[in-house]
Amino acid sequence: MNVPAVPERNTPARPLRDPYQAYLDSLQSPESRRTMKGCLDRIARLITGDPRATGAGQPWERLRYEHTVRLRSLMREQGWSPAHVNKHLVALRRVLKEAWRLGLMSGEDYQRATDLPPYRHTRLPAGRHVEPEMLAAALRVCDADESPAGRRDGALLALLYSTGCRRAEVAALTLADFDPWDRSLRVRGKGDKERFVYLTVAAAERLDRWLAVRGRADGPLFCPINKAGRLRLAHMTGQAIADIVTRRLTAAGAAKRTPHDFRRTFIGELLDAGVDLATAQALVGHASPATTARYDRRPERRRRDAVDRLTIPGPRR
């Protein structure tokens, strides 16, 4: 891959001092571990040229500035977006920091190798709006399904629309997180930060109907259901949540949407309704109000209205 040569290890791999594993172990969320593992594995493939390579056991501590700056260029040459490259640079900096913490590289080598500026860019938020008619159609499909999965999926879609939670946050919810008296859910977000979100009356009713099927035993709020309709009280994955959204919308004849589209819609609806930015930020768990503001649809509407004031002359007759 035309990466400057990385010196080979002088000693056999030392699993207990592997920066790759140390970094992944430091991450609190399974979703974060999965994401950053993928980033480091892709970087390892860039370094080695081996499409089967992973980051485990790689000589990360041998990387120097000439290697890391070349990797940064290679990522762009692969056609990766600036945001995608920057996510991989975060993973690269962190695995090198673990190498320094483990005493495998000097502080000076670590500082030089990680002196990589991120790619500056401006992008509109990914995803599309979930129209109320689209949600209504999907909920009708769930209601027509008399199996336990119909109750579960109807509650899940209503919860996503009512709270704007991330798919990993929904997957991690437990029964103990739900307070039916004030229709609230205790959510653990990124960085293990807790917050309260609230269900609409209709969403809470759907959740109650699901719990009548699920039962009140401790465990995950949403759980897998096999083809025979039997429930298994185990946490679902974020991908399983996304698969349910896709399956129910497809069955309703609606265009594809993702859990993040529900989140985008939730923020946009709040801001359209005049909810202040700080409240919207707190409800969705963004670290910065600037992130929440990116989902504000009102400036785009004002720009469109401004353009609509222009008049294009009609054809001569």
Question: How would you characterize the overall build of this protein?
Answer:
The protein folds into two domains: 15-113, DNA polymerase, domain 1 (Orthogonal Bundle); 132-296, Intergrase catalytic core (hpI Integrase, Chain A). 53% of the residues lie in helices and 4% in strands. The protein contains 14 helices and three strands. A hairpin with a 4-residue loop joins strand 1 (178-179) and strand 2. It has 317 residues and is mainly α. The protein has a three-stranded antiparallel β-sheet.
Topology:
Blueprint: H1 19-26, H2 30-48, H3 65-77, H4 82-101, H5 107-113, H6 132-144, H7 148-163, H8 167-172, E1 178-179, E2 184-188, E3 194-198, H9 201-214, H10 238-251, H11 259-272, H12 277-284, H13 289-293, H14 298-308
Helix pairs in contact: 1-4, 2-4, 3-4, 6-7, 6-10, 7-9, 7-11, 11-12
Region (Disordered): 289-317
GO biological process, one term: DNA integration
Domain Core-binding (CB): 14-100
